[in-house]
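Notes from the pairing session

We agreed to fold both candidates in a single pass and log them together. This is the raw record for the first candidate, unedited. Please don't reformat it; downstream parsing expects exactly this layout.

Candidate A
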Amino acid sequence: MSSMVPDPIFSDPRLALLYDTFDGDRSDLPSYLRLAEELGARSLLDIGCGTGAFAIQAARAGLSVVAVDPAAASLSVARRKAGASRVLWHEGTAQTAPMAEADLASMTGNVAMVFLTDDEWLATLGAVRERLAPAGHLVFETRRPEARAWESWARDDTDFVRVVDGVGPVRQRREVLAVSLPFVSFRYTYTFPDGAEVESVSTLRYRGDAECRRLLSAAGMHVVDVRDAPDRPGLERVYLARPLRAG
């Protein structure tokens, strides 16, 4: 995936319907809500919102939320959820998002890792900076390259079967296709009750701490804090950054 071309797992209507069932344990999200409360944020710009899990939770917590994603199929799922009417949904990228001054911008999950070139990442960071309030913050997480998560993925070749509402039992298989750091590519194959198979290939870019700090600085932002991800201790870094203009 690039910032403009979502992977099929997000953009294929058949696969978007499966996402919450296979990735529904979003134990990472409460820490983001706690951070919003810690910062006193009243407005949120959720970049790469996918099927809307965090955006809807934040809206229920009382934040004014703009949720952005380039995948129409994922947004279609999000818009049908309870509480979705509280969120302003935008099909597009950070660069096309409304120019509101958000207290907090977020990229949960692997969103920050789908920008495979520095130019894409810098353009996204710059667009986020322009949409933050003067004292606003950006928070995102990224996997630590030194944790080498792809090695455990390659060892774990177990197929998972989940029963998806309105679809039935669906089998998921993950395969690591290539490791050529900083890039790691993998494939998910989904087998539907009628025997149809649908694949989605994804590539993530792993950036180390020094690289993340350098690119944030190049985008006109400075690092306020780097935290551990409570749901994956030792495996990820959670960056909290502010525009340089905020001092």
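Candidate B (folded immediately after A)
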Amino acid sequence: MRDLKIAFRNLTRQKRRTILLMAAIAFGIYIITMINGFTGSFIENVSENFSNMLAGHIFIEGKEKTDSGKTLSLVRNDDILMQAIKETNTDWKYLTKRSDLSAVLIFEGEDLNQSVTGADWDVEEYFKDRIVLKEGSFADLQAEPQGIILSDKAADKLNLQIGDRMLVKCQTYTGQQNVGEFVLTAILIDSSLMGGSTAYANIDYINQLLNLQPDEYMSLGIFLNDPDTIDETADALYENLKTKVNMFERSNNEEENKILSMLKQQDEQEWTGLRFQLMTLNDIMSEVQQIVNVLNTAALIILFVLFAIIMVGVTNTFRMVLMERTKEIGTMRAVGMQKGIVRKLFLYEAFFIALLGVITGLILAGITMFILMQINWGMNTAAFILMKNGYMTFKLSVPQVLLNFVIVSALTLLAAFFPSNKAAKLQPADALRTSN
């Protein structure tokens, strides 16, 4: 305790120098903590937003191959799927049925290629909160069987107004040409990330255009109460379904892109009848997880680069301290202080600087995060996919914070070690004779 008190007292003798070193360390910790906080919530927010847009955490699709080798998406008579969900005690919140249509929209001589998603809006009430409407309403969409919601950019390109009726050209699920009409019931604000490429309509009319039967659709989505059980629930469902229907294999290779693996199976394998494919939100998000890993790795590299620079400052500062305290060190050594204690005093000072710098950086990062989390950035920005209901969120893990602290402390002590070792080796007589 005596040595610690002496080391702390020495820091207060040169307040300006100590504050500058602490500020440098605090800045480095601030930057790294902000990056770690952002990446900590990145995967969680993106997963939540994608699960709402895709209408589920687990997805089951039926696949049929035509005589020409074309693969068709179709779920026909889903009693077996529902039975498997019941037998595995799947804790679901919503069961969603969707169909997708690639169409050409035509209005007053203008045309636009548009992907249209058909959904049952009585079931997908939650999804309405994820779309920011500029004009119109979901009530109008539900009241109009041929209603469609387009992005503002798509509506502007076709010069459409609410209530306008447009022609739609498309193909049925088997590839025959078909035509129909849509009525513009609402316009959504284009986030420039997803909005411009997707429109929304009633699933019954989409299925009619696809020439599907009333009990047929393209994809079954299972929205779980607890997203943390996605993999466990998916594995149980898959094993149950394997005993009932023909299933595509699920990859267990963590390094393999599971979506590409499933698509490869569809292209390369042959089968007859209906074959089912089960995939999860985690499969889709595997690429996003790699982005998070890259960001965390980049943050660690930034940490080392910043503190490599800071280490130079710490080393030079302690060399100056050594020069200024040479006589003082000589006096302490003359009255019996051991070399190890002299070395420890310098290292204690460096540790205190690192500790106070880390604490300051964490406090500043915490304040910044709190302020940013209070701002509603809106659902109509391109970055909404990274946010939670339009708000930025940050999530720090205790192991990550401790790792940063250990790295910073180790680098600071390393920077101070050589000057402190030199100070410990000073001979008392030589130190007392110095002119400094």
